[in-house]
From TrEMBL:
<feature type="transmembrane region" description="Helical">
    <location>
        <begin position="104"/>
        <end position="124"/>
    </location>
</feature>
<keyword id="KW-0813">Transport</keyword>
<feature type="transmembrane region" description="Helical">
    <location>
        <begin position="144"/>
        <end position="161"/>
    </location>
</feature>
<feature type="transmembrane region" description="Helical">
    <location>
        <begin position="30"/>
        <end position="48"/>
    </location>
</feature>
<dbReference type="InterPro" id="IPR018227">
    <property type="entry name" value="Amino_acid_transport_2"/>
</dbReference>
<protein>
    <submittedName>
        <fullName>Serine/threonine transporter</fullName>
    </submittedName>
</protein>
<feature type="transmembrane region" description="Helical">
    <location>
        <begin position="344"/>
        <end position="361"/>
    </location>
</feature>
<feature type="transmembrane region" description="Helical">
    <location>
        <begin position="211"/>
        <end position="234"/>
    </location>
</feature>
<feature type="transmembrane region" description="Helical">
    <location>
        <begin position="367"/>
        <end position="386"/>
    </location>
</feature>
<keyword id="KW-0997">Cell inner membrane</keyword>
<feature type="transmembrane region" description="Helical">
    <location>
        <begin position="255"/>
        <end position="274"/>
    </location>
</feature>
<keyword id="KW-0812">Transmembrane</keyword>
<feature type="transmembrane region" description="Helical">
    <location>
        <begin position="173"/>
        <end position="191"/>
    </location>
</feature>
<feature type="transmembrane region" description="Helical">
    <location>
        <begin position="407"/>
        <end position="425"/>
    </location>
</feature>
<keyword id="KW-0029">Amino-acid transport</keyword>
<feature type="transmembrane region" description="Helical">
    <location>
        <begin position="302"/>
        <end position="323"/>
    </location>
</feature>
<dbReference type="InterPro" id="IPR004694">
    <property type="entry name" value="Hydroxy_aa_transpt"/>
</dbReference>
Length: 426
C-alpha cells in the first residue's frame, strides 16, 4: 500500500510541471474570483479619493499600485501555503505561532472582515431600494423584507459551496469589467484635463509625502482581497502540491495586472473629466463616482447603469468577504472548545450571518467610515506585516528571506497602519 502511495505521489509530482505549463479554466476562474473580491464598491469611490491629491500623487500611486498589491497578497498566500495540507489561515497561524497567537489572529481576522460584510449588506439594500424607486418607479417593499430576500439570495449561492461562490463571482466579473470599460470610454469625449492643471504645480516634498502617506491606504484597500486568499491558497495546494507557490504567483500576477490596468484607466478617465473642485464636492456629498457622474451629466444611461453596476460590485464583494468571515467564525467556534460536525457548523455560521446581516441592513446604520478606520489597521497587519514576520521567524518560509520585496511590503504596511491611526486620532 505504501509503495502504491509513493508511486502515486511521484506520478503527481512528475505531472505537476506539465500542468503548470498550460493555463486552465480553473486558473481563470480563480483569477476572476480574486479580481471580483478586490474590485467592488470601493472602486467606485477610488477616483474621488485618489484624484483629490492632484496630478503627481496620482501618478506615483498608479506606479505603486501593482507592486503594493501583488507582493502583499503573494506573501499572504505563501504564508498559508507554508502550513500543513488542508490548513486555513487561522490554523497556519496556530501551527507557526502557537495556540494563543492563533486564537488572537482568528479573532482579529474575523472582526476585520465581518464588519465589511455588514456594510455590503446595507449598501446592497440601499442600492436595490433606490433602483426600484428612482429608475423603475416602483415602491420598494418594506426594508426588513427587501434586505432579508437579498441576503438570503446571496447565502443561497454560499450554500452551494466554495467553488460555486468563486464561479459565481468570476461570472459576475465579466459584466462589471464591461461596465467599467464602457464608462471609462464614454467619458473620453468629456475629458477636460482638469487635474492636468495641477501637473505644473509640483508640490513641496513634505506636502507630497504627506499626501501619499494618507492616500496609500486608499489604494491598498481598494485592491484588497485578503479574505479569499486562504481559500485560494488551500485550493492551489490541493491541485499543485509542491508547485502551488509557482502557480498561485502566476494567477495573482495576472489578477493584479487586470485590476491595475482596468481600475486605473477608469480612475484616470474620471479625474480627467471632473475638476478637483468637483471631486471635492462628490466627497462632501458622500457619493460614489457613478452617482456624481449621473447627476453631473443628467444622462439616463448612466443613471440606469450606475445602480446595476453597484449591485454587481457589492454582490460579488459580499460573496468574497463571506468566505473569509465564515472561515474566521468557524475558527472561533472550534477554538472555543465546541466541535460540531461540518454540516452543523456550516448551518450555525450561515444562520448567524443571515440574522446579523439582516438586522444591520434593516437598521441602516451609518458606520462605513468607522469600519474602514477600525478594521483597516487589522487588515494591514494581517496582509502586510504578519507574512513578513513569518518569513523572518518560520523555518518553512526561510527560502523567501533576503528579497527586496519583503522590505517594500513591510514599509507599505507600516505606512498604511500609521496613516490609519493618524486618521483615527484626528
Amino acid at each position: 500500500m505504501n509503495d502504491q502511495a509513493n508511486s502515486l505521489e511521484k506520478r503527481f509530482d512528475a505531472a505537476a510541471p506539465a500542468e503548470l505549463s498550460s493555463w486552465n479554466r480553473q486558473d481563470t476562474t480563480w483569477m476572476l474570483g480574486l479580481f471580483g473580491t478586490a474590485i467592488g464598491a470601493g472602486t467606485l469611490f477610488l477616483p474621488i479619493n485618489a484624484g483629490l491629491g492632484g496630478f503627481w500623487p496620482l501618478v506615483i500611486l498608479a506606479l505603486l499600485a501593482f507592486p503594493m498589491t501583488f507582493y502583499a497578497h503573494r506573501g499572504l498566500t505563501r504564508f498559508v501555503l507554508s502550513g500543513r495540507e488542508g490548513a486555513d489561515i487561522t490554523e497556519v497561524v496556530e501551527q507557526h505561532f502557537g495556540i494563543k497567537a492563533g486564537a488572537l489572529i482568528t479573532l482579529l481576522y474575523f472582526f476585520a472582515i465581518f464588519p465589511i460584510l455588514l456594510i455590503y449588506s446595507v449598501g446592497l439594500t440601499n442600492t436595490v431600494a433606490s433602483f426600484l424607486e428612482h429608475q423603475l418607479h416602483i415602491t420598494p417593499p418594506p426594508r426588513a423584507l427587501l434586505s432579508f430576500v437579498l441576503i438570503l439570495g446571496l447565502l443561497a449561492v454560499v450554500r452551494c459551496g466554495e467553488q460555486a461562490i468563486v464561479k459565481a463571482m468570476s461570472l459576475m466579473v465579466y459584466p462589471f469589467i464591461v461596465a467599467l470599460l464602457f464608462l471609462a470610454v464614454y467619458l473620453i469625449p468629456h475629458w477636460n484635463g482638469g487635474i492636468l492643471a495641477t501637473a505644473s504645480q509640483v508640490p513641496a516634498p513634505s506636502a507630497l509625502l504627506h499626501t501619499l502617506w494618507l492616500a496609500i491606504t486608499v489604494m491598498v484597500f481598494s485592491f484588497n482581497h485578503s479574505p479569499i486568499i486562504s481559500a485560494f491558497a488551500m485550493d492551489q495546494k490541493r491541485r499543485y502540491g509542491v508547485h502551488a507557490d509557482e502557480r498561485s504567483s502566476q494567477i495573482l500576477a495576472r489578477a493584479h495586472a487586470l485590476m491595475v490596468i482596468l481600475v486605473l484607466f477608469f480612475v484616470f478617465s474620471c479625474v480627467l473629466t471632473l475638476s478637483p473642485e468637483q471631486l471635492a464636492e462628490a466627497k462632501e456629498q458622500n457619493l460614489s463616482i457613478l452617482s456624481y457622474l449621473a447627476n453631473h451629466f443628467s444622462n439616463p444611461t448612466i443613471a440606469f447603469a450606475a445602480p446595476l453596476i453597484a449591485f454587481v460590485a457589492i454582490s460579488k464583494s459580499f460573496l468574497g468577504h463571506y468566505i473569509g468571515a465564515s472561515e474566521g467564525l468557524k475558527g472561533l467556534i472550534v477554538k472555543s472548545g465546541k466541535r460540531p460536525g461540518a454540516k452543523a457548523l456550516d448551518r450555525i455560521v450561515a444562520a448567524f450571518m443571515l440574522v446579523i446581516c439582516w438586522i444591520v441592513a434593516t437598521l441602516d446604520p451609518s458606520i462605513l467610515g468607522m469600519i474602514e478606520t477600525v478594521g483597516g489597521p487589522v487588515i494591514a497587519a494581517i496582509l502586510f506585516l504578519m507574512p513578513m514576520y513569518a518569513i523572518r521567524k518560520v523555518p518553512a518560509m526561510a527560502r523567501y528571506r533576503g528579497q527586496a520585496s519583503n522590505v517594500f511590503v513591510t514599509a507599505v504596511g507600516l505606512v498604511a497602519i500609521s496613516a490609519l491611526v493618524y486618521k483615527l486620532a484626528v
